[in-house]
Amino acid sequence: MKALIALDIEPSQRFVDELSKAWDDGDAVLPIDQRLPLEAKRNLIAQLKPTHIISSDARVTLEGGQPVENGDALVVATSGSSGTPKGVVLTQESVFASAQASSLALDVTFDDHWYSCLPLAHVGGLSVVTRSLLMGTQLTVASRFDADEVDRHSHTCTLISLVPTALQRIDPRKFRAILLGGSQPPVDRPKNVIATYGLTETGSGIVYDGHPLHGVEINIDDNDEILVRSPMNMRCYRDGTTSIDSDGWLHTGDIGSYVEVGILSVQGRRGDVIVTGSEKVWPEAVEVALAPLFESQQFAVIGLPDAEWGERVVVVTTKTDVSLNQVKDLVLQTLPNYCVPKSILVVDSIPLTAIGKIRRGELRQQLSTNN
Q1: Residue ranges of domains in the chain, CATH in brackets
Q2: What's 340's DSSP letter?
Q3: Which of 60, 201, 348, 355 is the most buried (most CB within 10 A)?
């Protein structure tokens, strides 16, 4: 049995060094999100039970910590977009398989140089570091995203992983390839910007621009749920439970389809679908249609209870100068009439996960009470 070391360290070269040292010793690492308040960090540590914690100034052995299995490499907390975060256990083999498949898809060579600026407590950011370590690629780690710093390092760095809000703030032409994860990607994006699909449970992106990476099998079941079988899949959750069935298929909870042979389209989370009347409305599709009216993270589409329709489609936004007629006209350009929102609700802020995903469940709960 090996140690689980919580790294309560800001993104930096020291984080990379401590991760590398832990792996050399056969231990696993739990990255702690540096943006969490102290109480949230304590709750996460109590839930996931690391054996040690390394902070900026100390290494401490924790009472009640639980070791990991031999061969485990990472325990990563899920983003928590639909509930309490879980600890996903990724093995050395799965992390290497992810690094190898991603590097193959991107044609990475020793001349490439990754720039890391996303949170290292989430797989989208952490995988930049892990694939660099495992594949021997050059790496620069920034403490956070800063558009000016990205621009400065674009003269030497060739590869970067971003979320859509960050992409809007840089010149994407300065990088050879950009992996884009998190929330819904923009429809019109440069050819070097690759939309990724993946989960914490798959150790980062496993589908690039609709195409599964090498070794990844995708199946759509009778309920339109996306199932994944791959060497990148997690071993289990930290509590020993799993969402992988006896045939090795990971049940993602995402709904998808094939737009053409071999090209996957992801509609969204099963629990996010809005059933209005007898019709199903995917909030992500409505958000794509409405994108010209809003800045990213300025709005969300959700379903709220409705006596007549069961649920009604609603736009929730921090913007006060948008009319329902503008919304209707824009939606009807690409979607059927039942997708048109029936009301606009103005709020102070849209609840988001650390990587920019909308916390729809939290938003629905807040607004259902008042509407």
Answers
A1: 4-267 (3.40.50.12780), 273-370 (3.30.300.30)
A2: S
A3: 201
